[in-house]
Amino acid sequence: MNFMSTLRYLSQAAMNGRIVATADLRISVLGDGFMFGHGLFETIKVVDRHPVFFDDHFARLGRSAQALGLVLQSSRNQLRSHCDQVIAVNGLEAGNLKVILFQDERGTSEIVLGRSGLYPKETYERGFNLKTEPAGARGMLAAYKTLNYYENIAAKRRAATAGFDEPVFVDGAGLLLEGATTNVFAVVGGRVLTPPADGRILPGVVRGQVLRTLGARAEEKLVSLEQLRGADEVFVTNALLGVMPVSRVDEQTYDVTKNPVTRELMAAI
């Protein structure tokens, strides 16, 4: 298996508020960020040069930094300025930003990277295929978007090798948790269900938007794999996808031409 990263970042980045060539980014191998993965990241969608849901991402970054003992290097307005600079210097019209906060040798550092491109319309038309996978131990880091991300990436690669778009983790009791990079929702009898933010999942920014949009129609509750497979509709969310229909979970298929709740959310969010 090829373990090299397939991500391609744009030529200019921001490090601690200064624009530098991405190829010239340097960090110390002696810092806890490199040695122990002591760091966080946020992935922010960019549409028409605008970072989508920026305030929600910044709020989560602040909460996570406090929980993990990291110091925010920028205020809300300063980080927004750094993001806007990376967008401008790279001419980024549509794509995403990756904001990284990590413990360097002499303190906390911040990097903002850019990537171009969005998911094509055809992907939403066919929907995602999900492959269930047993969840490993869910420690304290499960609730945060940390640099300790290899378990998720390895699961994502296994799913891709098997012909799926995304793995979805299921615990030993047969309860749904989350995807490797997504939150999962099931529409059952008109109710929209999603696993609770009980410390075992990452509460995604778009997940929060869905819950606020639906109000009383949505419920955070334990969802079994059998409920998922028997659902009327299934969809997943993350910052880059927005709301993505699901057409298959393992061998169970769903008709993505008959998913009114998912389409309502796609239009709204």
Structure description:
The protein contains 8 helices and 15 strands. The chain is 29% helix and 32% strand. Strands 7, 8, 9, 10, 11, 12, 13, 14 and 15 form a 9-stranded mixed β-sheet that branches. The chain is globular, with a radius of gyration of 19 Å. The protein folds into 2 domains: 12-116, D-amino Acid Aminotransferase, Chain A, domain 1 (2-Layer Sandwich); 121-268, D-amino Acid Aminotransferase, Chain A, domain 2. The protein is α+β, with helices and mostly antiparallel strands. The longest helix is centred in the first third of the chain and has 15 residues, at 54-68. It has helices spanning 32-36, 54-68, 76-90, 121-126, 150-161, 205-214, 225-229, 260-268; strands at 12-15, 18-21, 39-47, 50-51, 94-104, 107-116, 128-134, 166-170, 176-179, 183-188, 191-194, 218-220, 233-238, 242-249, 252-253. A hairpin with a 2-residue loop joins strand 3 and strand 4 (50-51).
In short:
The protein is of the alpha+beta class. 29% of the residues lie in helices and 32% in strands.
What is this structure's SSE topology?
Blueprint: E1 12-15, E2 18-21, H1 32-36, E3 39-47, E4 50-51, H2 54-68, H3 76-90, E5 94-104, E6 107-116, H4 121-126, E7 128-134, H5 150-161, E8 166-170, E9 176-179, E10 183-188, E11 191-194, H6 205-214, E12 218-220, H7 225-229, E13 233-238, E14 242-249, E15 252-253, H8 260-268
Parallel strand pairs: 7-8, 7-14, 11-12
Antiparallel strand pairs: 1-2, 1-6, 3-4, 3-5, 5-6, 8-9, 10-11, 10-13, 13-14, 14-15
